[in-house]
Each structure stands twice: as structure tokens, then as C-alpha cells.
Amino acid sequence: ATLRSLCEDLDIPFQATMLRWEAGPKPIDGLWAKWWYESVHKSTGFTSAREYPMPFPMSLYDLLEQSLPFYNMLRRNVRKTSSLLKSPLPEPDLPVPANKNLLAWVGDEIVPRDDAKVSVFDSIVQGGDGVWEGLRVYNGKVFKLEEHLDRLVKGKQKFGKVIVWYMELVIMVKQAIFRTLIRN
């Protein structure tokens, strides 16, 4: 049904032959296929849809929370007339519902969680030269902040970026963290 809807949205005639294919690599797979497509190369058709709701593994809740803003952004930008929206998946529950109202530091401003976006022209997107550190806050204090900042800078250096203005960066990042904490 999803493939039929997608064909309808793209104005491509649906054919039953789209549901089955020969196992093995394809000439159009690209250079990385042997690492990325192992299970696809073994397949010969679509598997049955999973039943929802499935219990969500507790070990993945942090990843879920980090992914939700992107999911919500994509969901808001889906064509409203798309036949794919007839049976959308439910929005997953956050383990801490209050986190839905968090504010985020983006660039030089604090914005609501769902509005936190990075431009597709940003070097982190264009060149993949980003570094990420997750912080935990307990009783209003950032856990091991100095260690996080050291890892952040060392991670950037692994991309060949020499951080000559280390102290200035640390002060700037700390100010962003504390302003965001205070607002939240």
C-alpha cells in the first residue's frame, strides 16, 4: 500500500513487479554498496510490516529524544495531500514529557526544540566535519563539563582542525550552555 501511494504521489504507474527482485548486487548500487546493502542484496522482496506499537527499548531513549526534532521537522514538511499520510505512525512518547518544551542553542540564539535547525549549507552538513557531545544536567549542574569540552575540542582536532583559540571556544560554549540552562 505504501509503494502504491508513493507511486501515486510521484505520478509513476504502479506495477506488481516492483514488489519482487532478484537477490544480489546491482550495477547502480554504488561504491559503498558492499558495506551498506548486505541485507538488501540477500532480499528478493518486501517483508511484512511490523505491528505497532512495539515496546521501545529503554537503551535507545536518548537517541529517540535527539531524533525527535528532526522527525517532527520532516513530518511538518511532508506534502499535506500525500496519500502516505492516511495512516501515519504515531508520534513516539518521550520518556520525559517535559523535554518536549526544552529550548536549544542554535547559532547565536535560543529557540524552541522543534525550531532548532541547521542550514543545509552549514559546513557540518556539506562537509560532514561536525563533532557532537551530549551533556547531562543533574540538580542544575552540568555533569563533567570540563571533560566534555576537552573531548569536543579533541574531536574537532581529529578532523585536522587546529584549535588555536581553545580558551575562547571553551568560554563561548560555556556561555551558550549556561544561558540555555537558565532559560530552560
Description:
The protein is mainly alpha-helical and about 180 residues long. The protein folds into two domains: about 1-75, no CATH class; about 95-184, 2-Layer Sandwich (D-amino Acid Aminotransferase, Chain A, domain 1), CATH 3.30.470. Helix content is about 40%, strand content about 5%. The chain has a two-stranded antiparallel ribbon. A two-stranded antiparallel sheet has the order 3-4. The longest helix has 18 residues, at about 165-184. The chain is extended, with a radius of gyration of 22 Å. The mean pLDDT is about 80.
Low-confidence runs: none
CATH structural architecture of the largest domain: 2-Layer Sandwich
According to DSSP, the number of beta strands is 4
Give the SSE order as H and E letters: HHHHEEHEEHH
Strand content: 5-15%
Q: How many strands, which pairing sense, and closed or not: the largest β-sheet?
A: 2 strands, antiparallel
The share of residues in helices is 25-40%
CATH class of the largest domain: Alpha Beta
State the assembly state of the protein chains.
single chain
- Classified in CATH, the superfamily of the largest domain is Aminotransferase class 4, branched-chain amino acid transferase, N-terminal domain
The domain tally reads 2
Q: What is the average of the pLDDT values?
A: 78
How many helical stretches? 7
Strands side by side in the biggest sheet? 1-2
How does the overall form come out from the CA principal axes? extended
Secondary-structure class = mainly alpha
> Which fold name is given in CATH as the topology of the largest domain?
D-amino Acid Aminotransferase, Chain A, domain 1
> What does the radius of gyration come to?
22 Å
